[in-house]
Amino acid sequence: MRKVLSIAKAEYFQAVRSKAFLIGLFGMPLLMGGGILFQLLVEDQVDLSERHCAIYDPGGELWPVLEAAAQERNERGIWQAGEDGQREQLRPEFILERHIGGDERADVVLSDQVRAGELQGFLLLDPTLIEDEVSERPLAYHTEEPTFTELPNWLEEVVNEEIRRRRFAAADMDRELAERLVRRVDLSTWGLLEAREDGTVDEAEEDNDVRTFIIPFAGMMLLFMLVMTTAPQLMNQVLEEKMQRISEVLVSSVTPFQLMLGKLLGSVAISLTLAALYLGGIFWATHHWDVAHFVPAATYLWFVLMMVFALLMYGSLFGALGSACSELRDAQSLMMPAMIILMIPLFALSAIVESPNGNLAVGLTYFPTATPMIFLFRLLAPPGPPAWELLSAIVMCLVTTAALLWASGKIFRVGVLSQGQTPTFGKLLGWVLSK
Amino acid sequence: MPKTAVRLDSVTKRFGTHTAVSSLSLEVPRGSLYGFIGPNGSGKTTTIRMILHILAPDSGELEVLGETGTRAANDRIGYLPEERGLYKKMTVRRLLAYYAALKGMPAGEARRETDRWLERLELTEWRDATVEALSKGMSQKIQFISTVISKPELIILDEPFSGLDPVNLEVLRGAILELVAEGATIIFSTHDMTVAEQLCDNVIMIFRGDKVLDGNMEKIHERYGQDTLRVRTDGGVQVLKDLPGVDQVLDLGRYQELRTHGDPQEILQALAQRTRVRHFEETRPTLHDIFIRIAGPEAAQEEEEVA
Q1: In chain B, whose CA is at the least distance from the CA of A18?
Q2: Inter-chain contact A245–B84, Cβ cutoff 8 Å?
């Protein structure tokens, strides 16, 4: 065991003293935080260039309405008062132009204008629009840039508002009364109440996205990223030692299993260091902003436990694959199936979110390598798994970890000294089953 | 303490249908410098890996430093494999400390040994440099130190001089002889028979997995006699044709080596009648010559092809 710890210690210090560790340490939060920050920054950066849109309204019934609505919007609807008293434009102006049809088809002529960059798009209003029986395409917006949805949405809203007004008028009905009568009643989702022995009742809390989705999702993603930071690295390290002919010296001093175990423990120590920093940051932040009740203390313990299991599982898997390869190119081809196994929990996420304790979620929890991540998500998502699963999931993790360590140790034993062609998965299985 | 450092008894190792080592028996005496010689691919490295318990033999028995069938002796063995590398990003001092720790050496003692060996091989000023900053010769000396830092009783060196410049080669040769003088047992594996002949007091020659020669160098030379002449003449290799008493002529350029069965005096007289003799020396057959005699001329060709 002393030698295993020597290997783990060397792996750990070699990693934490490297620039790659510092980049990984700050890179991951920067990547996540930076992504959110970038979104927030660009959210306010709006392209304020004028958007020209042609309206083809053969009946001419709605053009005056659209023209007036655009004028109203451009004068008042897209501005806010700045601190210095100046008006600040928030959204782009919509400049509407009425197209009067000629000999040629209007939609063909207008399409050419859009292609020429003269128009953002054009709107075709069918004369049946204001009738009870409308045609198949009463309101059609044509554009080359369908991702810019603000203009067609606004057009649709203006046209529909006018049509509703006309319908109410035609029916001689009071619109305000009608809207009051069909007003929706909102439903809110709450947790359960609990009666105490002293007769008081713990009131239910209203569910929100932070508790039901954001915390479980963030926990699972943090675990995924920590595994991704260290487990594939193990594959590279083992392969590098093979390529640089270091492995043979090492296995003359320690058994291949001791070597693999030392490396795994080193990886776990590296991840625990990263986790301590990140979880410490989360602990501080949740207390600082007074939202610590969303992340109870047990959450941290479960996270660390599942992380250790996940690292031992994936680390041994990647380490074994690294030992079986002789070249980087071969490792990359073997890495793909391993990555797919690693990503199964992410693929299954939508099904688990829908029903964290449903049959599918429970079944996927016991897919061997997926247990740590899926179970962590289910632990963090209300109401949490039933009590018996706390034990069965741990047992499943223990069994899977032991099986993977055993199988990887067998592959590692043969692979670490093998040279030449990378073995097939069938051959790897043969190594596992060999004496 | 047993007198034998390593004992192999009828050890065989197969890889699929290929027999890498066939019923090999040998004894390496303690304190000896024992040469494993033979062309590349003859089974030397497989034998070494079995001694280190990196590979398990299919049959036969191994005893290493008094231990049979376990890795218990591995902490007392230093191993420098033929294909070797170092952690490029580690500093020299940390690297040596790591290798010493893997052999179970206490940290304080490892530090003292590191300083002693770095000074001995004139590398003290590089102790805090990363391995990637070292020249090839320096790296090889560090590899050698990493092999011997834990004061092993048995040191296995597989092609230790390959790629070394003459200056560093002499430094390492001196260090190896010093270790032998201090009582270490050294197994020296090489395909370069000239080097083995100069260094080793015992050799075992392996060819295609079989032992073809084993014993003390003096006794081997006694057995194969002094049937070789080295000559240089004005007439060159042409005048040696059909010379009485000469079985084989090996042209070395400026010199020719003759394998003979007759009286050297009579050969000299016959040669002097043909041309002016510049140099005439009675010499012993080299290990290479002996290898060719044992394994046949096709072995020489095979050796050249794999070397």
Answers
A1: B89
A2: yes
**Same domain for A159 and A214?**
no
Q: Does B54 touch chain A (CB under 8 A)?
A: yes
* Residues facing residue B111 across a β-bridge: none
CATH code for position A155: 3.40.190.10
Predicted confidence band of residue B147 (pLDDT cuts 50, 70, 90)? very high
Q: CB-based contact (8 Å) between A417 and chain B?
A: yes
CA distance B280 to chain A (A): 47
DSSP letters of A36-54? HHHHHHHHS------EEEE
Residue B49 and residue B123 in one domain: yes
- Alpha-carbon distance A419 to nearest alpha carbon in chain B (angstroms): 12
For residue range A4-20, what is the model confidence (pLDDT) as tens digits? Answer: 998 898 888 888 888 87
Find the residue in B nearest to A258 (Cα): B102
C-alpha closest to that of A238 among A331, A329, A342: A331
Report the distance separating Cα A254 and Cα B160, nearest Å.
22
Same domain, yes or no, for B95 and B158?
A: yes
Q: Say whether residue A246 is in contact with chain B using an 8 A CB cutoff.
A: yes
Which residues in chain B (266-295) have CB-CB distances under 8 A to chain A? Answer: none
- The per-residue pLDDT for B301 is 57
Best mutation site among B102, B144, B156 for testing chain A: the one with the most A CBs within 10 Å? B102
Q: Domain range spanning residue B135?
A: 4-221
Is pLDDT above 70 for B300?
no
Instruction: Decide if A193 is inside a domain.
Output: no
Question: Which residues of chain B are within 8 Å of residue A252 when distances are taken between CB atoms?
Answer: 52, 54, 74, 77, 79, 81
Mean pLDDT confidence for A333-337 = 83
Name the 3-class secondary structure at A294: helix
pLDDT-derived band at B299, boundaries 50, 70, 90: low
Q: How far apart are CA A122 and CA A55, in angstroms?
A: 6
Q: In chain A, how many domains are there?
A: 2
Q: Which residue, A172, A200, A233, sits at the end of a domain?
A: A172
Shortest distance between the Cα of A2 and any Cα of chain B, in A, equals 8
Query: Residue B288's closest CA among B242, B245, B250?
Result: B250
Task: Judge whether B241 and B250 are in contact, CB under 8 Å.
Answer: no
| Residue with more model confidence, B301 or B123 | B123
The pLDDT of A173-198, averaged and rounded, is: 87
Cβ neighbour number for residue B69 with a 10 Å cutoff: 12
Q: Do the domain assignments include residue A127?
A: yes
Whether residue A14 lies within 8 A of chain B, CB to CB, comes out as yes
β-pair type (A51-56, A121-125): parallel
What residues of A are in contact with residue B80 (Cβ under 8 Å)? Answer: 249
ipTM higher than threshold 0.90: no
CB contact under 8 A, B89 and A14: yes
pLDDT tens, position by position, B224-257? 777 788 899 988 888 888 888 888 888 878 888 8
Instruction: Identify the residue with better confidence: B220 or B120.
Output: B120
Question: Given CB atoms, is B101 within the 8 Å cutoff of chain A?
Answer: yes
Kindly state whether residues A385 and A285 are assigned to the same domain: yes
Q: Is the pLDDT of residue B140 over 70?
A: yes
pLDDT in tens, B43-97: 888 888 899 888 888 999 999 988 887 778 888 999 988 777 788 888 999 999 9
The SS3 assignment for A198 reads coil
In a domain, A28, yes or no: no
Report the CATH number at residue B56: 3.40.50.300
Q: CB contacts < 8 Å between A and B, how many?
A: 57
Yes or no: say if B37 and B196 are a contact pair by the CB < 8 Å rule.
Answer: yes
User: B251 to each of A11, B66, B194, B239, B275, how far by Cα in Å?
Assistant: 56, 48, 18, 12, 17
| Same domain membership, residue B249 and residue B216 | no
| A392 and A245 in a common domain | yes
| Nearest neighbour of A245 by CB, restricted to B54, B83, B89 | B83
Q: Between chains, do A252 and B77 touch, taking CB under 8 Å as contact?
A: yes
The confidence score (pLDDT) of residue B307 equals 43
Q: What's B206's DSSP letter?
A: E
